[in-house]
Amino acid sequence: MVMRKRRRFSWLRLIIFSLILILSIVIVAFHSFSWIVKAIYPTHYIDIVEKYAEVYNIDPYLVLSIIKNESKFNPEAVSRKDARGLMQIAPITGQWASEKLPIESYSQDMLFDPELNIQIGCWYLSILNNQFASNFELVVAAYNAGNGNVSRWLSNPEYSADGKNLDNIPFGETRIYQQRVLRDYERYKRIYE
């Protein structure tokens, strides 16, 4: 009889201990989840992003999504096409921006400066935003493929039925890029708003 009580008692202790352990793990995981999500969707350079997003009337979450996809927040990133910095500004775009903004003593290496890179990126996004009537799908596609390509696609019934929206993006890289940026944009909004 005493043996049965001990066994029952030890099983009961084991079950209680297991439940407490599982509950503790769930609580820690729940509290860590927020930290993990924010690590996957960081807000590095947020002060600079918010500054220029406001100046150029661009959603800062769109800017963060583009930076995440273009450079993974690496200010020294260089693409195989020589685009540079956080927002992967092409040297020719940097030169054009330096004349329009104006930026004194411009050189391509200045594109590695996070503040200047984000300023130029937001400036360029504002141009695309105006050109494509604030249609984020078109703006993001144009940021990747160029506004000339997107304009041509809109005028081609093979890619656009109404001339205002793209039904199909012929560049696979741009199609995937657009999907990822827009997905990340929605996630940034959900996490930080």
Q: What is the averaged pLDDT score? A: 92
Tell me about the largest β-sheet: none
CATH class designation of the largest domain: Mainly Alpha
Total domain modules: 2
Structural class: mainly alpha
Q: Which spans of ≥5 residues are poorly predicted at pLDDT below 50?
A: none
| Beta-strand residue percentage | under 5%
Task: Write the H/E string, N to C.
Answer: HHHHHHHH
According to CATH, the fold-level topology of the largest domain is Lysozyme
Query: What is the overall silhouette?
Result: elongated
Number of helices: 8
> What is the CATH-assigned architecture of the largest domain?
Orthogonal Bundle
Layout of SSEs?
Blueprint: H1 2-40, H2 46-55, H3 60-71, H4 91-100, H5 114-131, H6 136-145, H7 147-154, H8 172-192
Helix pairs in contact: 2-5, 3-8, 4-5, 5-6, 6-7, 6-8
Folded structure, characterized:
This is Soluble lytic murein transglycosylase. GO terms for molecular function: peptidoglycan lytic transglycosylase activity. Keywords: Membrane, Transmembrane, Transmembrane helix. InterPro entries: Lysozyme-like_dom_sf, Transglyc_AS, Transglycosylase_SLT_dom_1. Belongs to the transglycosylase Slt family. The chain has 193 residues and is mainly α. It has two domains: 1-40; 46-192, Lysozyme, CATH 1.10.530.10. Helix content is 66%, strand content 0%. It has eight helices and no strands. α5 crosses α6 (136-145) and α6 crosses α7 (147-154). The longest helix has 39 residues, at 2-40. The protein is elongated.
